[in-house]
Amino acid sequence: MIRVEVNALEQIVHLDHTLDRKCKIRLQKQQIHDFRNQLLSEQLQVSIQQEQLATTEHGKPYLFDFPEFYFNHSHSQKNYALASSHTMPDIGVDIEDLDRRVKFEALAKHAFHAHELKHWNELEQDSGYWFKVWTTKEAVLKAAGLGVRLNLNELNTQVHPVHDGGLCSHPLIGTFAYQNFHLGQVMLTVAWRSEASCKGFAFPEIKIFLSA
């Protein structure tokens, strides 16, 4: 099972608007990490402090006291998401606000695989499909732990215009499955390491907990 907690960022981050931009960014990062550690503490029923986290070679955080507990988090301008699991390895999550102002065409030309760009244009540059592709790319690459070390346009997510989930592969990262969720004005995508099979694949149980 994969558990996903979704919270409004305004419930987590409280900034002094007299601070300069650099201080605001540093404080926001600190408050988000504190909230993540609070959620991890609740799930593991043990106090999790920042010094208990380590990072992989490419900067992906993990708990060295709980090597078989997997987690990943993401935040947009308005929302925060933490995905965690005791059973699904190498998970990744990405969340985006659907009302975010985006230079859709410029970013699509830069980040989309040729097949994704073709489908997006066939859909008359539908913004919903754009966000589905974007969050899938981010979630898969975060799950793989490579971050931006793999060019976004090299990964063909195979995102479907209608169905909200699938498989994608790349020689550098292997195969990952993903599922997309439309949560009102939010697009959320969860990814996890999987494998191609003639039997297909089954989605794990994914429970989403939305803050009140």
Any key phrases for this structure?
single chain, about 210 residues, alpha+beta, four-stranded mixed beta sheet, four-stranded antiparallel beta sheet, 10 strands, globular
Short note summarizing the structure:
This protein has 212 residues and is α+β, with helices and mostly antiparallel strands.
Main sheet makeup: 4 strands, mixed
Flag low-confidence runs: none
**Strand-residue proportion:** 25-35%
What's the rounded overall pLDDT mean?
92
What overall geometry do the principal axes of the alpha carbons give?
A: globular
End-to-end C-alpha gap: 22 Å
Q: Tell me the total number of β-strands.
A: 10
Element pattern in H and E: EHEEEEEHHHEEEE
- Helix percent reads 25-40%
What structural class do the secondary elements suggest? alpha+beta
Radius of gyration, in Å, reads 17 Å
Total count of helical runs of at least 4 residues: 4
Strand line-up across the major sheet: 4-5-1-10
